[in-house]
Specification:
CATH class of one domain: Alpha Beta
Strand order of the largest sheet: 59-65-64-61-62
Distance between the termini: 82 Å
Structural class: alpha+beta
Largest sheet: 5 strands, mixed
Shape: elongated
Strand content: 35-45%
CATH superfamily of one domain: Histidine kinase-like ATPase, C-terminal domain
Length: 1009
């Protein structure tokens, strides 16, 4: 914070020069200093001449023309007709308009009477039909006065919607051409042919004017009633006489047709032959056909709107005059020509270097020094030395002393871009033709450095008091520090300065260098360059100069206009260049600032007067920034939604509007009534129900949407005026898009119900399919168990029964040793057979052949069981890491492997047995022996009466695996089983088989087989 405050202090001290107490008044109120815009009926803006103007409380400007009524929003002219077909509004010349305080519009027409438009309703007053209305006025109490020519109804008034006319002899029965209420509340009427009457209804007081009827009247600053009509500009004197108004133009009286006194007290006069006359504080200036007016004579109405803009209606044009935020001073205000440079002297006076000489502004008067005063040439650059001397470069170096010019005997060449003074009082000049020139305090040449001898194309200079040297800026983006006759420090485009002209080099007291560049405002500090540009918040890049005002804020002249920054914002950027600045104001060509890509060429380009104004050089004259009196528009603009177009059909802007189904292209037209600079009005809008956030269309006055879904929407739009004052309430429009038959709720409900039925049907079909599959598996299991039960009955149980019979037989002769021995031997054989048959049955009945999930361990037990009574060498190997397997598939693999191992041990007569279990993407089991092998028919069809091979193949097929058996006589046998990994291995939480079981609520431990 200390660093930031120090930066602010240094910036203020350095950028703010000091002046004496004497002030200079710079004119900024002439009509030529207003912003001027014109619209013409010849360009198709409207038909006919504009006869009268009014503004309603909703902000619209209404124009009465020879063809009817035109509404204007600052951008679009719209010929107005009532929105209701049954409302009759005759197409006739509109002769009088009034925007009343209650929001209504009163319309007077020639031979068509009076009409009121209020709240969407049109009201006619049949008592005045057929007559002409020339004047409409609202008095201080809200009563509407109507004047015209209609039999005995020449003067009427309307209260609470009731029309009453004065028809007695106390009121002169003459057509009324104009009505006016003065500051004291008196009602004045101008009556044909030549009377001005104060309408005291009991006893009207009338004054005759031999010059004819008054067509317009106002009160001037002195309270005099000023009249304009067919003759000269007149006024009603205190002695009751109508006399010539004491205003002369070119020594002659003024023939006036229309009048206005604006809110600042300026008098506007539409004349016959002299154009538009403007009078302010006793100064008279004009605006004529040469300045852009259609004519110098045809002025029908001068009107001031709610924002202070002045509108002038004429035969073919509508002209707008608006106060500019940054006006200019030109030859119209007395300058000899447009300035090249400007200097604010210590005595408070202003010096301008111009093409025609040296202009000196003092006490609001301009004195010009030119060739008649000994000036050698036009003046480009100037300097006031520390001892107060004024130096001007004119091809020679001219010294101004006590009102006289003294040309110093030194050749400085043409186009001196800049002059600076060092700490010793020596002068340094940069000349386009000579180069760098060094003079002593008296102006005597010390040394010249030809531009060919310097590495830079010098353009601007600045003295560095810290390092006692010169910073010289070039036209190609190079900046160098010059001392002791040479460049000792250099920066260029590669250091961030960009290419193109550098301008307005300034050195702060701490040695920091600021310079305007084509890429922004550059700051050089500690050999590092930072750029304040568009990326950092400026509206554009190229910057010509920067100055501080008396309030401590900063003004930058850029290629796109004037930027106003707060001292805190600039100091924050100065302390941290990644800070993004937010301008307080931005003024461009619509505000009076020239868009200048190159900037001024000579110095100084800007000066601050003792009254706090900043004056700067631009193409169109001397720009004037008055920080304390910037013309600002503080009125938020009324916002209106004007209409809606859906699929090329127009709809009125009314709430709860129903749009047809399948509306594809939607356009919503809106406007904001700020008439000062409509081009700078900005909008934001949102369509609630569609847009997630506010949209920023800039100054576009249409919103577009495509293929909106059925539903209810609310469109909201807000706007700001030319100075950024927002109307945050804005306007809104509620509308509905109807659904097509297939977009209705009942159709969606029907589709939902149908979908549920289809899903339910698919679900039940799948349940039946799975149930059938489970039933088949259960049937297979039941058949298998039935087979085993039959085998138990036919083998094991019969053998046991036979053993019992043998035992019973032996018990019948317990004393016969021979018989008993024979019976025991027979019983042992029977029991051995029962044991073998029981083991076989039990193995087939076990639910799971292994108690754990370790298939390898189960196979090892099978091998150990197999080789108990066999002399066979067994090699068992496992490849890969064991994986979690589903019990059902694992048991099937075990049974296949068990059968293959048992066959090798009991039937192959093998001496070697090799088992390989491989865990990879799939599970592979390989069992190979070197036994007697099998014949081909046995491999393919199996041995009659034996079902081992057939069972192995059936089990392999059941789990979707590949079973291969290769064997030949005396060549051994090799069995290979490949089980797909997605069948046997668990992936994630469940396998495919288990997902099926879980879906149908089966226990994971249950056996689908």
């Amino acid at each position: 914070m200390v660093q930031v405050n120090f930066c602010i202090l240094v910036l203020l001290i350095w950028l703010t020069p000091t002046f004496g107490q004497r002030g200079t008044k710079i004119l900024s109120s002439d009509i030529s200093q207003y912003g001027y815009t014109t619209w013409s009926n010849r360009s198709g803006s409207f038909r006919g001449g504009v006869r009268t103007i009014a503004q309603t409380s909703d902000g619209y400007l209404w124009l009465g023309t020879g063809f009817g009524l035109v509404r204007f929003d600052g951008v679009r002219f719209t010929e107005w007709n009532p929105p209701q077909p049954n409302d009759s509004f005759p197409e006739a010349e509109v002769s009088a308009l009034l925007g009343a305080r209650d929001g209504s519009l009163w319309i007077g027409q020639v031979n068509r009477g009076l009409t009121q438009w209020k709240d969407g309703r049109l009201t006619r007053f049949p008592e005045l039909d057929g007559g002409s209305v020339f004047a409409i006025m609202e008095d201080h109490e809200g009563t509407i006065w109507v004047g015209g020519g209609h039999e005995n109804k020449t003067l009427c008034r309307i209260r609470s919607g009731v029309l009453g006319c004065f028809e007695d002899k106390k009121v002169p029965n003459s057509p009324v051409s104009f009505l006016y209420q003065d500051r004291e509340g008196r009602i004045w009427a101008s009556l044909l042919p030549n009377q001005l009457c104060e309408m005291q209804l009991d006893n009207p007081l009338c004054y005759s004017d031999p010059n004819g009827v008054a067509g317009d009247m106002v009160e001037d600053a002195e309270g005099r009633l000023v009249l304009a009509g067919n003759g000269r500009l007149r006024f009603l004197s205190l002695n009751g006489k109508i006399e010539d108004y004491p205003l002369r133009l070119d020594g002659q009286g003024i023939f006036a047709r229309s009048l206005l006194v604006d809110r600042e007290g300026s008098l506007w006069i539409g004349t016959s032959g002299k154009g538009l006359v403007h009078v302010r504080e006793g100064r008279v200036d004009t605006f004529t056909k040469n300045d852009g007016l259609y004519s110098n004579t045809s002025f029908f109405k001068i009107f001031e709107d709610r924002e202070g803009t002045v509108w002038v209606a004429s035969l073919a044009n509508l002209d707008r005059f608006r106060r500019l935020a940054i006006p200019s001073m030109t030859e119209r205000q007395g300058l000899s020509s447009d300035p090249f440079s400007i200097l604010s002297a210590q005595d408070g006076t202003i010096w301008l270097g111009t093409e025609n000489g040296l202009d000196h502004i003092k006490d609001n008067t301009i004195e010009v020094y030119n060739k008649h005063n000994g000036l050698a040439n036009y003046v480009n650059s100037m300097l006031q030395t520390l001892d107060g001397r004024i130096l001007a470069a004119t091809g020679k170096l001219s010294l101004v002393e006590k009102g006289h010019l003294i040309n110093l005997p030194v050749d400085i060449g043409d186009n001196v871009f800049g002059i600076v003074e060092d700490a010793r009082g020596d002068l340094w000049l940069v000349s386009n033709t000579v180069g760098l020139i060094h003079l002593n305090k008296a102006g005597t040449l010390i040394e010249k450095f030809a531009k060919q001898t310097l590495p830079l194309r010098i353009y601007q200079l600045a003295y560095d008091p810290v390092r006692d040297g010169l910073w010289i800026a070039a036209k190609d983006g190079n900046l160098g520090f010059f001392k002791n006759g040479k460049i000792i420090e250099h920066y260029g485009p590669g250091d961030g300065l960009g290419t193109g002209k550098l301008s307005d080099v300034q050195v702060k007291k701490d040695g920091t260098v600021w310079v305007g560049t084509r890429v922004g405002l550059a700051r050089l500090r500690n050999s590092k360059i930072d750029i304040l540009n568009q990326e950092a918040g400026l509206p554009c890049n190229a910057t010509h100069w920067i100055r501080a005002d008396d309030e401590g804020t900063f003004w930058l002249y850029t290629e796109c206009g004037i930027v106003h920054l707060s001292q805190e914002d600039l100091a924050a950027w100065d302390a941290q260049p990644n800070h993004r600045v937010t301008p307080l104001d931005f003024f461009n060509n619509m505000d009076g600032v020239d868009n200048n890509p190159l900037g001024p060429w000579y110095s100084p380009p800007v000066a601050k007067t003792s009254d706090g104004r900043l004056l700067f050089v631009q193409y169109s004259g001397l720009g004037i920034i008055d920080p304390r009196h910037i013309v600002r528009n503080v009125l938020p603009p009324p916002v209106h939604i004007e209409g809606m177009i859906a699929d090329r059909r127009n709809y009125p802007p009314q709430d709860n509007l129903n749009l047809p189904a399948l509306t594809r292209d939607l356009e919503i037209d809106y406007t904001a009534l700020s008439l000062v600079v409509p081009e700078k009005v900005r909008f934001r809008y949102i369509l609630e129900g569609h847009d997630a956030d506010w949209q920023d269309p800039g100054n576009r006055r249409h919103a577009f949407y495509n293929d909106l879904r059925p539903g209810k929407y609310t469109f909201r739009v807000i706007a700001c005026n030319n100075d950024g004052v927002w109307n945050k309430t804005g306007a809104s429009l509620i509308f509905l898009v109807a659904p097509a038959w297939y977009q209705t709720y009942w159709f969606l409900l029907l589709c939902t119900v149908t979908g549920l039925i289809v899903v339910w049907a698919i679900y039940n079909l799948r349940v039946r399919q799975i149930a059938r599959a489970i039933s088949v598996r259960f049937d297979e299991r039941l058949a298998e168990r039935t087979r085993i039960a039959r085998e138990l009955h036919d083998t094991l149980l019969q053998t046991v029964q036979g053993s019992k019979l043998v035992a019973d037989n032996a018990l019948e002769k317990p004393n016969d040793v021979g018989h008993l021995h024979h019976a025991m031997k027979q019983l042992s054989g029977w029991l051995g057979q029962a044991t073998q048959e029981g083991r076989t049955a039990l193995n087939s009945l076990r639910t799971s052949s292994i108690e754990t999930n370790d298939l390898a361990a189960g196979l090892r037990r099978a091998i150990e069981e197999c080789v108990i009574d066999q002399s066979i060498a067994v090699k068992f190997s496992i490849v890969g890491s064991a994986k979690d397997m589903h019990p059902i598939a694992r048991d099937e693999v075990y049974r296949i492997g068990y059968e293959a191992i048992r066959n090798a041990c009991e039937h192959a007569s093998a001496s070697e047995l090799e088992i390989t279990l491989t865990y990879a993407q799939n599970l592979t089991l390989r069992v190979r022996d070197n036994g007697i092998g099998m014949e081909a028919a046995v491999v393919t069809e199996g041995r009659e009466g034996h079902f081992g091979l057939q069972g192995m193949r059936e089990r392999a097929e059941r789990i979707g695996s590949k079973f291969t058996l290769n064997s030949a006589p005396n060549s051994g046998t090799e069995m290979t089983l490949v089980v797909p990994g997605n069948v046997i291995f668990r992936k994630g939480s469940v396998t495919r088989v288990e997902r099926i079981k879980t879906f149908f609520g089966l226990d994971r431990s249950s056996d689908l087989h």
